[in-house]
């Protein structure tokens, strides 16, 4: 095993906190914090240290990090023979702000806080996946409307912090979403403004006019840590750090350059600062994340465990090549100079990195929040185009297989009747539909009619419905292998 080791070069006293991050999980530690670590190393300190916060769960991680002065390690695996172990001190403070959020507000009101970054996952924005409107039926959002000074949700916290900053005459911080959603900046702005309007329409207008919400595309495969991966870090890298995270060597961050109060000189640390993130986000969401979700549901139905196990099977590799080439790529409009074919090839080799043990069950979580932007938005565009041009529908067979496998998965049982937990904010609705509709055609029809997930084009398209139904029936009667007839060259 070849191991490269990088240590922090700066003194901790030479770092001030300029960023508050909400959503302290493995992804933040392995992605954004590493870019900040590179920045602090290059500048030998500076004003862009991070205060990382959890608002709902995982107070334990906060305690563990604090016991070690927030120092931890990131193990970046190129493959099973090459790893880079990095010491990270970029997180200079960690907070758990559960019921009492005043310590968090202290940070958010500091004039040193210039940027607030978020990785709260898709469901943490409380918007309906299909139309991105605030989920007013959610009790936490209702709470934040009734008691805005004691918010529970991330949008509610941003509204209250901006309200207090405005009142105190402190310029608004910039809000940078780092979650896997298209137009994540505009989406965050819309959720925050919609919530703020309950306080006062003028205040919502003030946010609209005064707060920057740049979009960003984030990319790095970071499996959830397990006891097994901890043990591997100990034995392979001699790393005895209970806060360590493991990830792939690849990393990408494309950020819209709109930071009125300033920002780290990220372009010198490999961050791509651009005017328009949208094409990059769409490409990554539909190709990488879309393939991930496809492997997650179809692979789980085939009883596979990890992404690498799945792509090692030529039939699964052909499935995602087919999906990317014929069902996702035609929906992309990329600027000149981006070689999408090369990107597709690089994804296949990233997925094959078996040192990561990236579990399909991790990706399968929250499908109702993920598949709209990963598969359905692009597929709906194709369905509409095909209808308008009256051309025969083709090339949605991989998406139809994905949808059939997702529907199977949301029933909470695999093909042999073994149960699994369906971790999804819509699990109750989905479960009710599974209980109510015993006939596959009724079940599929009712699920395709959930407009919070499926754009209208789906419930109006009989060909797509038939394709999902046929695949579902084949899968349940003959098994997954019978559905994997993809030759990506056709
Ligand atoms: C994955 C992502 O869990 C998931 O849904 O598709 O976390 C994926 O690994 C990252 O977006 C890669 O950048």
TrEMBL record:
Alphabetical GO biological process terms: mannitol metabolic process
InterPro entries: 6-PGluconate_DH-like_C_sf, 6PGD_dom2, Mannitol_DH, Mannitol_DH/Oxidoreductase, Mannitol_DH_C, Mannitol_DH_CS, Mannitol_DH_N, NAD(P)-bd_dom_sf
UniProt xrefs under PROSITE patterns: MANNITOL_DHGENASE (PS00974)
Keywords: NAD, Oxidoreductase
Gene3D superfamilies noted in UniProt: N-(1-d-carboxylethyl)-l-norvaline Dehydrogenase, domain 2, NAD(P)-binding Rossmann-like Domain
Domain Mannitol dehydrogenase N-terminal residue range list: 18-267
GO molecular function, one term: oxidoreductase activity, acting on the CH-OH group of donors, NAD or NADP as acceptor
Designated name of the protein: Mannitol dehydrogenase
Native source species: Marinomonas ushuaiensis DSM 15871
